[in-house]
Fold these 4 entries.
Entry 1:
Amino acid sequence: MSVVVTRNPPSIDPAVQRQVFGALPTGVTAITGLTSDGAPRGFVVGTFQSLSLDPPLVTFCVDKSSSTWPTLRCLGRFTANILSTEQLPVCRALSRKGEEKFRGIEYEESPLGTPRIPGAVAWVDCEVLSEVVAGDHYVIVGSIEELVAGQGEALLFRGGKFGEFTLWPTPASDGKA
Ligand SMILES: Cc1cc2nc3c(=O)[nH]c(=O)nc-3n(C[C@H](O)[C@H](O)[C@H](O)COP(=O)(O)O)c2cc1C
């Protein structure tokens, strides 16, 4: 595990940092794993991203206080379930604390043995490749082992609220020089 060294931090107000970055919409992704005794574990992130095409890599950031990440780290694999607008209840359940949060949530096992939650926009099955300590978070890099597109619209999060993407009407001049 490598560590990002930072210079003396300037006095940035965390509330302002939250407000500024809260204006930037993110997707909502459930990171899930299955323990050796068959118990599903998971938590929600807004930081899941594609990182590299060659080789195919993804990344997300997890708070050091996460109680689920240490389990998934040991398992060494996870599925990133990109949640759809139909899956707000899944988001709410998995963003709680506690081992019971998967109760009532259905899943299917991926070829990697990780939980895929039906109804997601996509499932990305990954092996944990590396982890970097960065301040109060870990930055996780995963290598993509399998990638499946589902259906529906991605659930979005901005400023503490959930929503969906709205396309602008295409102006008549679009596509014309
Ligand atoms: C929309 C949304 C996005 C979130 N993004 C992150 C994130 O990127 N990283 C993170 O560590 N926690 C994030 N959280 C908070 C975690 O989901 C929450 O702390 C989680 O339930 C921790 O549970 P655990 O202790 O079982 O890991 C997010 C929560 C929500 C609702």
Entry 2:
Amino acid sequence: MESARPVPFLDLKAQQARIATDLRRRIDAVLAHCQFILGPEVAELERQLAEFCGAAHCVAVSSGTDALQIAMMAEGVGPGDAVFLPAFTYTATAEVPLLLGATPVFVDVDPHTFQIDPAHLATRVEQVRAGGKLRPRALIGVDLFGQPADWAALREIAARADLFALDDCAQSFGASLHGEKLGRAADATAISFFPSKPLGGYGDGGALLTESAERAALYRSLRTHGEGTTRYDVLRTGMNGRLDTLQAAVLLSKLTVFADELLARERIAAVYDSRLGHAVQIPARVPDSTAAWAIYAILLPGTAARDRLQAGLKAAGVPSAIYYPKPLHHQPAYRASHDGTALPVSEDISTRIMALPLHPDLTDQDVERIVKAVLAHV
Ligand SMILES: Cc1ncc(COP(=O)(O)O)c(C=O)c1O
């Protein structure tokens, strides 16, 4: 008999129970000192995050989206600039260049790993150059679903075309590539602490990582209204983009269990791989990498098969989600800025992709139940 309790897609309460004592201690410390803006926990978090991934500098900010925006503002990206990014990603990646007056140029993705396709990026850069209307200026490579993009290839193309390379690592902090944690793969790396991310806070939050002291100083200035060395010294147009001290306290507590949670996520992904790989298309592993498994996405043969599986899982108390039902160049907000290039992989996989629950608090019984429910409906 199946248990009546639905499997949680995400279980922040279970995680909270595991870290309750430390979490309370951290929050109480903030309530005691009352430095709610840029309190000591923010600097401590920045140190710990930089250390975790071996980055030289970390600047904590108000969200992953603001991290992307601050990084682009620091480079002076604006009207006339082409910013290359995958068509198959979350909307924030494309929203930021548009907010700054630049033009997103959508690039297709790999059909097996779902990561941005370096060969297509090179083609798109050449197209933009030949078109003569926009200046190739920046790349936002996304590490999608917890796996890293092919940064060796992306960096080479970016260097050849003189693009600023920004790693949108919102979903994949904790993953590694060629033996190094993500955080140093590009000129700057943006991460998100949205609650459902592998390292999630209790509200919005994000951070920028970079090897460049100059960039880090600019990010600090931009996150506080473009300030200079004193508070009322305004050097540039900035924003209110700071991370709250309370969020930093929560994240410091969550960092104590983060490495173990990454191992738990990998264990579950390995079970899905071995038990489901013969029945559905599982995500191909990016070579020489480890994943943070924010999302475990499978591919079904088509939309009807996906609908059937989703309905079957729902009846069995197993939730699922679709990331992403539309590639960005088909979204009303971005259609007008797209040059009409077909992006066949992004267009195809959005019709048949589906995510299964994957988080560190799934029990072995939950995982077994998910596997059996999938196998019963494909
Ligand atoms: C790929 C990607 N980029 C950027 C963001 C934006 O992060 P945030 O929600 O913290 O602004 C997200 C997630 O929300 C994301 O998944």
Entry 3:
Amino acid sequence: MTAPKIGIREVGKTFVSDKREVEALQSVNLDVQPNEFITFVGASGCGKSTLLRIIAGLETLSRGEILLDGKPVDGPGVDRAMVFQHYSLYPWLTVMKNIRFCRQLKVVADTVHSEADVETAAGRADALLSLMGLTSFADAYPSQLSGGMQQRVAIARALMPKPATLLMDEPFGALDAQTREVMHDLIRHVYRLEKTTILFVTHDVEEAIYLGGRVVLMAPRPGRIDSIYEVPLPAQRNQDMKLSPEFTELKRQILARIRETSGMQTDLEQLEKLTAIAG
Ligand SMILES: Nc1ncnc2c1ncn2[C@@H]1O[C@H](COP(=O)(O)OP(=O)(O)O)[C@@H](O)[C@H]1O
Ligand SMILES: [Mg+2]
């Protein structure tokens, strides 16, 4: 067993606002292996975004700790890149400049500004543009691109400093079904090529299974890990696999468990009772 890339140990988070306490996360434990693609699903409010933000170092934790290569996280770092649902591109910069922007910040921060470094950065930006199928859009502005293309720019930008870990919070949530399928195959391709460890949050169970090696199901009130499913699919995936019996069976199981843990089951039972009374 290799040392985990990310060790999540007894992590808890309590938000306090107007004297009201929300237990967003309670006793979360999970080891994420290097180069694992792990997906998180669960009802809204079960703490998926909070967990990802804590790992990113964008949010503090109330209890427990997050270990990155064995060392506690104490803030954001270039080793972890985050991609959100809303492409946070700079509208006044071209695609190429958007991709190179963060890298330039890092170069300045490190005060390494040799020509070789600038050249490497240019080569990497070109390679990422090509990987994302955006080469002919290098000089376009974000407003000239479709939603899917903008999100590809955001992913390329996140990959620019070669982060060991990619944290994705419902990155394809705003895209149409067709564009999402394309993005799924693209992100699996990126994952194999860049050997990144990916933590991917979604509310779409099919997306979670198709992308992940493991699916973590979280439950709300308090936010916690309910169960973890191994995905019985090979590393090389294709869209037809979504129709396989293993895929549909796992999807059925996970959907049923989400219903059980989210309280939706009870709502439905009550609705049936009410309908029976009314009828
Ligand atoms: N900044 C915050 N202040 C107060 N409560 C918050 C804050 N962020 C999240 N929460 C609460 O924590 C819980 C988990 O939220 P979140 O992590 O966004 O869930 P998810 O991403 O699974 O929908 C929810 O009850 C939410 O209302
Ligand atoms: Mg969320």
Entry 4:
Amino acid sequence: MRIETETLTLKDGRTLTLRTPDENDAQAFIDYMVKAAEDTHFLIRYPEEISPTLEKEKEIIMENAEADDAAWFSVFDGDKVVGNCSICRYRSHLKVKHRCVFAIAIDKEYWGCGLGEILMKKSIAKAKEMGFDQLELGVYEDNERARALYRKMGFEECGILPRAYKLKDGTYVGEVSMVRFL
Ligand SMILES: CC(C)(COP(=O)(O)OP(=O)(O)OC[C@H]1O[C@@H](n2cnc3c(N)ncnc32)[C@H](O)[C@@H]1OP(=O)(O)O)[C@@H](O)C(=O)NCCC(=O)NCCS
């Protein structure tokens, strides 16, 4: 699903563009995903696990733009992707089609300026508009910044899966499940 293109002004005065990515953004999108995976261990993949071909990435971007049960809110600083927030239906089976999965990652150079909050508010509004009953996510137990933002946006913590992640140094980290009823 496509979103409306908008100009965003951050708390520090930087001006960014919010829009749906298109095929021409595929390389910028891959670069952003690698950078975000290098910034912290809070995403599911290590940087070296992110290696789609340009063609595959274009395909994913266009599938998302055309889907009627998913939306990406991508943030650009010029041609560079500096953040993305996605919502998509969990599964289409009758018993679970009311559930929407949420994900977000922002380039570290753009943290702490209100961008996370802006993207979450837009995603919550869009998920409501699309008719979902709830937004769901899983977050690393040690990701205090994200957990604080999610709570501020009305998500409730509803359980922890112990040892959901195992880092390269052997450290296990639990995953907190969170839900935001719409
Ligand atoms: C989590 C993330 C999306 C937050 O984005 P952000 O743009 O920095 O967030 P904002 O500037 O909008 O901050 C919003 C709220 O986050 C919380 N927050 C911000 N900095 C914080 C910190 N250092 N410690 C704890 N909470 C913090 C606060 O509740 C803040 O609200 P406030 O400004 O009114 O105090 C961003 O840090 C990120 O992409 N992290 C890496 C990827 C990631 O962890 N994704 C989530 C995977 S589940």
